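A student in our group prepared the protein record below, which I am reviewing. What it holds is a sequence and that sequence's fold in token form. My question to you is simply how this chain folds and whether the tokens agree. Do not assume that whoever made the record got everything right. I have pasted the whole thing underneath without changing anything:
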Amino acid sequence: MSDNMFHIPVFDGSSKVDFHTYKRAFEAVAMIKQFDEAIEGSLSIANPAVVTYADNLRKRKLAWSYMTLSLKGAPAAILERTASRDPFVAWTALCSQYEPNTIKAYNQIMRDMENCILKEPEADPEPWMQQLDQYNARLQAI
């Protein structure tokens, strides 16, 4: 598989609603590239003599690199503040900061959903229905 087929959108923190899309894409690439364990838990790299050291180090570096390439602005600053360079610590901080899990996020999604109208009755309704499905998925994630 070519690396070109994996696309993680750049997340700049301007909308918490967009984090859902970013997170889903990032986690999918993490599973395919096999560094998902680095964002699901803190992988030990303290002892180079341990059998898993090289694999853990590779996973941590991959996760950190993908986050560095796909974050900008305030979310990228979270990486800069993560002194340990542990991708799990940074990922947890990102999710805590940007995952829509508040009443404010819920209300924003509901407003967006209410404003999502089929503008042309004669047009293909499929894109409109897909947008509504995305809003529903975001609401379920809260």
Remarks:
- The two ends are 33 Å apart (CA to CA).
- The mean pLDDT is 87.
